[in-house]
Amino acid sequence: MARAAGVSAATVSRVFNGGRVTAERAERVLRSAAELRFAPNRVARALRMQRSSVIGLIIPDIENPYFNSLARGAEDAAQRKNFSIVLCNSDLNVDKERRYLDTALAEQMAGVIIAAASRSHTDLSRFTEMPVVAVDRRPLGATVDAVMVDNQHGGEQATAHLLRSGYRRIACITGPEGAAVSEERLTGFRVVMGEHLRELGQDQAQLRDLIRYADFQPDGGRTAMCDLLALEEPPDAVFVTNDLMAVGVLEALRVADREPPRIGVLSFGGVPRTSLVGPSLSTVDLPSYDLGRTAVGLLLERISGKEKPHQTVVLQTSLQVRSSSVGPTACP
Amino acid sequence: MARAAGVSAATVSRVFNGGRVTAERAERVLRSAAELRFAPNRVARALRMQRSSVIGLIIPDIENPYFNSLARGAEDAAQRKNFSIVLCNSDLNVDKERRYLDTALAEQMAGVIIAAASRSHTDLSRFTEMPVVAVDRRPLGATVDAVMVDNQHGGEQATAHLLRSGYRRIACITGPEGAAVSEERLTGFRVVMGEHLRELGQDQAQLRDLIRYADFQPDGGRTAMCDLLALEEPPDAVFVTNDLMAVGVLEALRVADREPPRIGVLSFGGVPRTSLVGPSLSTVDLPSYDLGRTAVGLLLERISGKEKPHQTVVLQTSLQVRSSSVGPTACP
DNA sequence: TTGAAAGCGCTAACAA
DNA sequence: TTGTTAGCGCTTTCAA
């Protein structure tokens, strides 16, 4: 290739990497490259530079629209800077995840973005040279850059909106006790409801009766909702902390003939689910696409060698009001 | 590393690649490697061998459980031979797909497995050196190995089963006219029904009244089913050629209060969908996992340099009988 | 601004 | 069986 253009290999390299080359020679190189369909060999480049232009993205569940959208965001951002993303599905399995991490090291990838399979068992200690960015969940005891979702804020948004819509007795169906995501969203609910009750001079203890822990699955949501409906004083709205449980909740409400918005329903979601039948569901949307985009941005800064303290970027959720939470009297 | 073990680099290489080395020296190498946490540099290896141990897997929709399962099959098979898979989501977009194909070339991947975004516009002409295996759909005018699904056989299985269950007036809701997958499944239906009618000495023309083309989406399935139910002589069973449309069909039947198995329903599917409510759906299952596994097998044979004519492997579907097709009288 | 030369870590051919 | 050597295609000094 260098010979074809009548220049040295060094000059060709400079043309493709933005070095200083006279316009005339640069053009000659480009023309020859086009003719010969030459494209720089990325493997040789990676060997020489001790770093490839591939970013590993390890996520726990590739079928989950949330992570899928995250991957899209990462991909778009990477492509713009001429990096490529290799997608790895850890399946929430720490062993499988470790194998992917090994590969990232062996392939001398430029960096890794990881939504860890386990907060405590995912081991990032070997990543001293290669930059890592955690997304969605931060592995314990690893100092890395991270991009997180402000789950508590989302819970606050959700609850405040239900109150504004005129609901008064609001319940919360959340995920497993002790799971970061569900606890944080629940905290948002508690904080806003607590303040509301305090203003009214009401007893904070009633709050506890309206909280149910479930399992993030449709069945768990249905059971919890049935349980709430059986209360002496059932709630007039419910904040469900993920959309899978919301499916079960809606089913329970349909069976009980108390469909939203008579009972308000608001869930955490954010990625378009194909046609949940019935009234359209209000949600607090997760910034999944931006999570991926931001993670790549952070990673590329590290890759380019910027020395700076590790940082955590927290992205906000956004409230999407649809018909399931318009108010208890809107549809008499 | 070679120095640490007191041997030459060549010996280290042989230890890691199954060359002939005396047990004593091999052990010494392995021990040093463990101590130093040494792992061979795959980039250098790829440069030297002019071929990496990465296989590109390009699929049109990562969220689709079918392709997801295919990816798992490919991954498991590759892992067993020390290859890794990089997953690329083309999003049914030919441009995006072409960028991935460029990357595969530039990264000197070992090979590519592709479920093409377009049968006519996906251009594989540049892949003269690098082996390619087509899965699920074969790009037009490319001579490559391929792994396909026997859709027609699936349609035949489905229809024959409905007949065996005692249904007599069987309809078919299929995908868009001209789409390979839906046409092939429909052919299976036509062939079996045609033979059945001929045996009975009945008019073949009535077949056409019972066929509806839809769009592979739930809404299309619902509309088509409503249309069929409005016939003077409505069908007593329906073969739906994908599971998305089956969702709409079941909804239409519920609304009409003619739930299966009173009207038999059998759809194409094969990857566990999360809890379709109602009676469990009989399906013709696609061999998605094996599709991925087989494609990797074929690719690795090519990679290892076997010269042989290009071949197409066709995998069979499998009938899963559940309650939606047990027969018109089973639940009087 | 340009080219010559060295070297990234590995494997394959060859010689011992 | 083992070591020596060359070279994969690139980027990066360094000198011109």
CATH fold field value of the largest domain in chain A: Rossmann fold
Low-confidence stretches of chain A: none
What multimeric state do the chains show? homodimer
Helical coverage of chain A, percent range: 40-55%
Could you tell me the strand content of chain A as a percent range? 15-25%
Radius of gyration of chain A: 25 Å
User: What distance lies between the first and last C-alpha atoms of chain A, to the nearest angstrom?
Assistant: 77 Å
Key features?
homodimer; 332 residues; alpha/beta; Rossmann fold; 2 domains; six-stranded parallel beta sheet; 12 helices; DNA-binding
Describe this structure in words.
Two copies of one chain form a homodimer. In chain A, 43% of the residues lie in helices and 16% in strands. The first copy, chain A, has helices spanning 2-5, 9-16, 23-36, 42-49, 65-80, 94-106, 151-164, 180-200, 206-209, 218-229, 243-255, 288-303; strands at residues 54-59, 84-89, 111-114, 132-135, 145-149, 170-174, 211-213, 237-240, 264-269, 282-285, 312-315, 318-320. Chain A has 332 residues and is an alpha/beta fold. Chain A folds into two domains: 51-149 and 288-313, 3-Layer(aba) Sandwich (Rossmann fold); 151-286, Response regulator (Rossmann fold, 3-Layer(aba) Sandwich). The first copy, chain A, is elongated, with a radius of gyration of 25 Å. In chain A, α5 runs parallel beside α12 (288-303) and α10 (218-229) crosses α11. Chain A binds a DNA duplex (16 and 16 nucleotides) through residues 7-14, 17, 19-22, 25, 40-50.
